[in-house]
Specification:
The chain is an all-beta fold. The chain contains no helices and five strands. A five-stranded antiparallel beta sheet has the order 1-2-3-4-5, with no helix packed on it.
Amino acid sequence: MQTDDCNAEGRIVLKDGRRFKVSIDNWTGWGAVSDERTTRFLFCRACADILEPDFPFRTSDRKPPGR
């Protein structure tokens, strides 16, 4: 995960080898998921201000698959 003042960016590699770049803007919650061919935009209201020091990360009761 790479972070900057105004966005966060990460790379995801799936088990089948496909690779994606995910980016989220800090203040707006808008982001994008892209691969070599396409870019899809997304909006995550809960992600707005995600890079702020007092961001309230929520814990999840869900367990990751396979655990």
